[in-house]
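I would like you to sit down with the record closing this message with an eye to the fold:
=====
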Amino acid sequence: MFRRTGSAIGTGFRRRTSIHSTVTSSTPGGRNRLTASNQIKADDMKLAIPNLAGQFYKSGAWGNTTLNGLIKTTATRFPDRLAIADAPDRSNWTGGVPRQLTYAQADAEIDRIAALFRSAGLVADEIVGMQAPNSVDAVVTFLAALRAGLIVSPLPLHWRDDEVLHALGALDAKAFISADWIETRDSASSARNLAAELFGLRFVFGLGSNLPDGMICLGTMLEELGDGLACDFQEPDDPANHLTTICWSQSDPEPVPVTRTHNQWLSAGRAVCDAAGFEEGAVILLPYSLTGLTGIGAGLAPWLLTRGTLHLHYPTSVEQLGTHAITVDADWILSPGQLANALNRQLGSESGRIVAAHPVSHMRPQAHSETGSVIDLHVADEFGLVAASSCIQAALSEQSSMDHAEGNRHIHHSTHLEILVPPNAESTSRSSHPLLFRGPMVPQTGWNGTHRIAGLAVTDDGCLETALDLALQDGLFAGFSPGKPSDGLSGPRRVPEVA
């Protein structure tokens, strides 16, 4: 459970830092790109190009359902169904004992934490940073922040103080939520100390059982405020097209923000559900934290769409992941792609099926063994994902269909995602130009409300120009690679050489 420690709301630290944020400049080609500046604001929280939004609504790819709306609906229809459960070894890598909640319990707890955020003084569309491992507390708090009308920026667990400080400052975050500890790292103390560096950070909330003075323990606050809390936030018009999260792309040497709405997250989730065949009430084992497209788009969203049960996992070994899957009788297990074969052998043909996640990399997916069932999920940074059967992948050829309006060649086309190459690309096997993404899961705007994202250009008709290239094998799609950086980008970050 959330536990206590901490004092009054606020941190008492107030010292301004010179954190650089991102606004735009124009390139010679007239496209907008993100550059450094000292301030950044959200001018428009409805993040969609109007003509594309109309197409997506008309096709049914978008609707009026939000992530929290799915929780509420399922809590009404199946109040006693198990919604979410901690890993049994939770106390080995973060504070607190393992918990599990039914849908009714989860919905009630989400509502109370959302009310707590509102009563503390956080208002709609303010940014809340979050860095916490895969626990029931973290998932419930993430959804509670969205229910309170806040925008969550989940930060990767491997980020340390400098990266967290830069991200929170760039977004002008008003609050930060941290676990008490993660493995050997005292993350709570780091979070508290960051408040001294950020003038605008008003609250530092803590999850867990061992928090330092100066942090606000959510568990303690809930206990002190009692059971009378109710969230009073009124959803805006068209709530599913409203900004929910700001995740972080690694396309540039410096992490850059990538925005998404409820509709875009749910479209990513539907792509996975459709390809993998997730069914109503699916039992899903998720070893990824809610920090980006894999954890949220392939884990959280399918869980909510299927009204299933989400078992959380903190990965330390393939054997541990397989044992957990067998113990909870998982229908689907998300796994790093390079570990899928070993996990498949452990599970055998009678156990759950595997969604093998392949991030942007030069490495090709391995051929999967005969036993079990594996779906390859190719994750294109934070821009989009392609889920396909490992034995029937879409052929990509020079004779791909043409987008006659623009002259771009389609190399992948589905309800959820289009992947195109410009008409002057040399080949589809190793394009000399970055790939274009378009579709209901693809971000369409940059953080401050204009048509730009992550240092990349977005055309007026919604094509997102990425810095990614294709990886093909025997004419078949085999994933994404970093490719050649587009103008204004210097490519992926490099690991410093050790002297």
User: Anything to note?
Assistant: Residues 270 and 302 are 7 Å apart (CA to CA). The two ends are 45 Å apart (CA to CA). The mean pLDDT is 79. The longest strand covers residues 243-249.
